[in-house]
Amino acid sequence: MQNKAQASSGTFAGRHVAVLSVALIVTACAGMETRDRLDNLELSVTTYESALRWGDYDAAALYRVSRTGPYPPIDTEPLQAIRVASYEIVNQALNATQTEATVTVLFRYYYQDVGQVATLRDVQKWWYATAAKRWFLDGELPDFQRHYE
C-alpha cells in the first residue's frame, strides 16, 4: 500500500507527463502550420510567376489583394505585348511571425514587336491571410517599362 507522499508524487509526475505531452503536440502542430505556411508561400510565388511567364496577366492580377480587400481591376490589355523571358528570385525574407514576406525578383522581359530584352528588379510584398490560409500580393503587377521605341 502506498503512502500519501508516494501517491501525490505519482499524480504530480503524471501531471507533468500530461503537460509535457500537450506542449510537444502544440509545438509539433505549430511546426507543421509554419511548414504549411511556407509551402503555401512557395506555391503562391510559383503560380504567380507561372501566370506572368505565360502572359496570363489576368490570373496574376488575382493575387493582388491588400489587407483591406482586392485592388480595383486593371486593364491587362497593354501587357499582352510583353513576354517574360525569366523570373529569378534573388532574395526572400519573412517577418518573425511568418505572416509577411518580401520577395525580390529579377525579371527579364521583352516586347514582342521589338525583341530587345530588358531587366526589371521588382520587390514584392506578400502577406498571409490566416482565415483563407493563403498568401496575397500587396501591390501592383510589375512595372514593365518600354525602354526602347
Written description of the protein model:
It is built from 2 helices and 6 strands. It is 37% helix and 30% strand. It has helices at 4-53, 57-61; strands spanning 65-66, 69-70, 82-94, 100-111, 118-129, 134-137. The chain has 149 residues and is an alpha+beta fold. The termini are far apart. The chain has a single domain, classed as Roll (Nuclear Transport Factor 2, Chain: A). The strands form 2 sheets. Strands 3-4-5-6 form a 4-stranded antiparallel β-sheet, covered by helices on one side. The model is unreliable at 16-29 (pLDDT under 50).
What's the architecture, going by CATH?
A: Roll
Number of structurally distinct domains: 1
Spatial arrangement of strands, main beta sheet:
3-4-5-6
Straight-line distance between termini = 96 Å
Could you name the ranges where pLDDT drops below 50 across 5 or more consecutive residues? 16-29
Most strands sheet: 4 strands, antiparallel
